[in-house]
């Protein structure tokens, strides 16, 4: 089922996600719905807070990035085949040089800004079957994971840009909160609540 994506300004996007118990009811269905929602919105990642759930869960599928012909063939193949569910993740390490990339977010449509993130990460997490993993990622995969991990910590990519850039996008952010933005996917805006 395609879920509405929560828009900028909703308090759930600022909550730190709760750990998910192993016996959480409907977890597999939530994950399946999140993948369907992400694909419908042409995203490469989606965190549970973005569908209104303050839990430590996010999904990533970097296949859309694999079309970039400027990338080495090996990296294109990695991106084409990277699809993962992260449950109760813990970022163990962020290292390497910080590099900029123009990021966007399904909860903040029509806003894109350069964000600087570490090149390499080490993350511990559980998969959908609650098997524990500790993995190291770099490049675009690491970046997408860091972006989604921030969501379950209550952090948005707009928190990582300069105060000048924040002022420049203020009107766009206000429009999102007021429900004046019209992306081509289903959204739930804070101003529309209670109407």
From TrEMBL:
Keyword Cell membrane (UniProt): no
Gene behind the chain: def
EC number: 3.5.1.88
Positions of Fe cation binding: 105, 147, 151
Classification via NCBIfam families: pept_deformyl, PRK00150.1-3
Any GO molecular function: metal ion binding
InterPro entries xrefs: Peptide_deformylase, Peptide_deformylase_sf
Cofactors (names): Fe(2+)
Catalytic residues (UniProt): 148
Highest taxon of source: Bacteria
Co-factor note (free text): Binds 1 Fe(2+) ion.
Keywords from the UniProt entry: Hydrolase, Iron, Metal-binding, Protein biosynthesis
Reaction(s) catalysed (UniProt annotation): N-terminal N-formyl-L-methionyl-[peptide] + H2O = N-terminal L-methionyl-[peptide] + formate
A GO BP annotation: translation
Organism: Flavobacterium album
Role, per record: Removes the formyl group from the N-terminal Met of newly synthesized proteins. Requires at least a dipeptide for an efficient rate of reaction. N-terminal L-methionine is a prerequisite for activity but the enzyme has broad specificity at other positions.
Keyword Transmembrane helix belongs to the record: no
Pfam families for this protein: Pep_deformylase (PF01327)
HAMAP family according to UniProt: Pep_deformylase
Family according to the record: Belongs to the polypeptide deformylase family.
Protein name (record): Peptide deformylase
Classification via CDD domains: Pep_deformylase (cd00487)
Taxonomic placement: Bacteria, Pseudomonadati, Bacteroidota, Flavobacteriia, Flavobacteriales
